[in-house]
Specification:
With about 230 residues, the chain is mainly α. The protein is about 75% helix and about 5% strand. The protein is built from eight helices and two strands.
Length: about 230
C-alpha cells in the first residue's frame, strides 16, 4: 500500500506529465521534454520553499559591509538564474536546428529570397521594386526574430529573479518594521509566489521548447526555393 508521501509524489508527477502531454500533444515528444521541464520546476520550487524556513535570516556572518545573512534565496542570485535561462535558450536553439535543419534555421533569420528575386528581375531588364520592398521587410523581420531569441534570456531570467528578490527584500523590511506577527501575511504571499514562479518559469520554458520543435513544419519547397534564390 502506498504511503501518503508516495501518493502525493505520484499525484504531482502524474499531474505534471498530463499537463506537458496536453501542451505538446505527442507522447514521444513529451518523453523528451518532460524530464528537463519537470526538473526545472522541482528545483526552482524547492529552492523557493527552503527560504521560508523561519530563523534563516538570524544566522549571519561578518563582512566588510556589516552582517550578511548566511542563508538567502538562491533564486535571488542573478548568476544562477542567468545560467538556468541561458541553458534553456541554447537548448531551444538546438531543438529548432534539429527540427528545421541548419540551412532552414539560418534562412529564418537571414531571408533574402525577395532581394535575390529583385536582382534577377533587374538583370532581365524588368525590375520589380515590390520585390525589393518585400525583401527589405523580410530582412527586417528576420533581424527582429534574432532580437526576440536574445530577449528570451532577459524575459525569462528577470521575471524569476525580480519576483524572488523583491519578495526577499519586502519580507526583510516588514520583519524590521513589524516584527513577530507583521510578516505573517507576507510569508503566505511568499509561499504562493514561490509556487507560481516555479510553475511560470517551467511552463514558459516548455512552450518555447515546444515552439522550437514545431519549427520544422516549414515546407521543404519554401526552403529549397530560398536556397535557389541565394545561389542565383
Amino acid at each position: 500500500m502506498p504511503s501518503r508521501v508516495q501518493g502525493l509524489a505520484e499525484l504531482i508527477f502524474e499531474g505534471s506529465w498530463n499537463f506537458v502531454l496536453g501542451i505538446v500533444g505527442s507522447e514521444a515528444k513529451a518523453k523528451r521534454i518532460f524530464p528537463y521541464v519537470f526538473t526545472i520546476f522541482i528545483f526552482v520550487l524547492s529552492a523557493n520553499l527552503l527560504t521560508l524556513i523561519p530563523g534563516q535570516n538570524a544566522v549571519s556572518i561578518r563582512a566588510e559591509q556589516g552582517a550578511v545573512p548566511l542563508f538567502r534565496a538562491i533564486m535571488a542570485d542573478y548568476g544562477l538564474v542567468f545560467i538556468m535561462t541561458i541553458t534553456s535558450v541554447i537548448m531551444m536553439q538546438i531543438v529548432a536546428i534539429a527540427a528545421m535543419g541548419p540551412l532552414a534555421y539560418a534562412i529564418k533569420f537571414i531571408n533574402v529570397k525577395n532581394v535575390g528575386a529583385f536582382f534577377v528581375s533587374l538583370i532581365k531588364g524588368k525590375p520589380e521594386f515590390s520585390l525589393l520592398a518585400q525583401g527589405f521587410l523580410d530582412v527586417f523581420l528576420g533581424f527582429m526574430d534574432l532580437i526576440g531569441e536574445v530577449a528570451k534570456v532577459f524575459s525569462l531570467s528577470f521575471r524569476l529573479f525580480g519576483n524572488v528578490f523583491a519578495g526577499e527584500v519586502l519580507g526583510a523590511v516588514m520583519l524590521f518594521l513589524l516584527p513577530f506577527f507583521g510578516p505573517l501575511p507576507f510569508l503566505f504571499l511568499g509561499l504562493l509566489s514561490s509556487c507560481v514562479q516555479a510553475f511560470v518559469f517551467a511552463v514558459i520554458t516548455l512552450i518555447f521548447v515546444n515552439m522550437a520543435s514545431e519549427a520544422g513544419d516549414v515546407p521543404e519547397e519554401e526552403v529549397m526555393e530560398s536556397l535557389s534564390e541565394l545561389n542565383n
